[in-house]
Amino acid sequence: MSTTRPSADPPPAASPPTAPPPAPDAPRLDLRLPSPLESVVDERLARHGVRLLLKRDDLIHPELTGNKYRKLRLNLAAAAAGGHGTLLTFGGAWSNHLRATAAAGRLFGFRTVGVVRGEELAARPLNASLARAAADGMRLDFVDRATYRRSAEPAVVAGLLARHGPAYVLPEGGSNALAATGCADLGREIGDAADVVAVACGTGGTLAGLAAGLPDAAEAIGFAVLRGDFLTEEVGRLQRAAFGRPLGRWRVETRFHHGGYARRTPALDAFAADFTARHGLAPDLVYVAKMLHGVVTLAEEGAFPPGTRVAAVVTG
């Protein structure tokens, strides 16, 4: 995944709708909201006096799980209100966002276009993530990496729209002002049940909204899944775009990317397998396993005072 992403945000609505208006023939989704907040006993944290909670956003909907539903919700409403029939967005070869946007398009009656980094991928069999997006009707447009790095530039976007027709443009990862606004519900749902909330971070939209929705006393920690130190600036930008100013207590932890986006190490594989054996939940290796590994490591380092309640967001 590139660290360059479209920066143009649609203005947040004065009174954002609470759900996207479905297309005439689209089903209304059976959503599990608020998502469950489950207490689990993990001896690695318990011996330091830390209590672990899992915020099960992966249970919101089988196809629009977790932060993807929260980030897309108000954008879908804005696209429908603007009369757009097509969603155009960006992602890497293993992008959860592309897959979720394709599913949302099928469920709500939008045509979808996914601009994928790496023109060489067009000559290969599609991986499981891109194959699912294509099966949901997404048109995949593979572009070279140099062009993808310039995907925020108006001339590049204009060229894509000329090729695919008018569309509502979503940035890489779906992170814009409306996405951050939608993710504030995550913080409000957790409320005062946790002292620290941990979430995996790719493009920063979920952390920006989560921190804004939490009570003042709580801290949000975003665990970066990409290499680089761009997220602190990006989360601040998203909060200013969504809320007019920085909100909440939050920080970005950059030590647990395990080599970068969609990369993994033997240590991460072993941690994920152990967590599954302990708790019966298999964390995905792109996002959630990295965040949980970070939480356990910080606890073992003494970063959380005894009595701290840590809620870890399982985004899917």
List keywords for this structure.
Rossmann fold; disordered N terminus; 2 domains; alpha/beta; 316 residues; globular; four-stranded parallel beta sheet
Quaternary structure annotation: single chain
Report the top-level CATH class of the largest domain: Alpha Beta
CATH topology of the largest domain: Rossmann fold
Strands ordered across the widest β-sheet: 1-2-10-7-8-9
Radius of gyration: 19 Å
Q: How would you characterize this protein structure?
A:
Helices cover 38% and strands 16% of the residues. The protein has eleven helices and ten strands. Strands 1-2-10-7-8-9 form a six-stranded mixed β-sheet. Helix 3 links the parallel strand 3 and strand 4 (111-117). Helix 3 packs parallel to helix 4 (128-135) and helix 7 (177-190) crosses helix 9. The longest helix has 16 residues, at 66-81. It is globular and about 60 Å long. The two termini are 18 Å apart.
Write the SSE topology.
Layout: E1 37-40, H1 43-46, E2 51-55, H2 66-81, E3 86-91, H3 96-108, E4 111-117, H4 128-135, E5 139-143, H5 145-149, H6 154-164, E6 168-169, H7 177-190, E7 196-201, H8 205-213, E8 219-224, H9 231-243, E9 249-253, H10 266-279, H11 288-300, E10 309-313
Parallel strand pairs: 2-10, 3-4, 3-6, 4-5, 7-8, 7-10, 8-9
Antiparallel strand pairs: 1-2
Helix pairs in contact: 2-3, 2-7, 3-4, 7-8, 7-9, 8-9
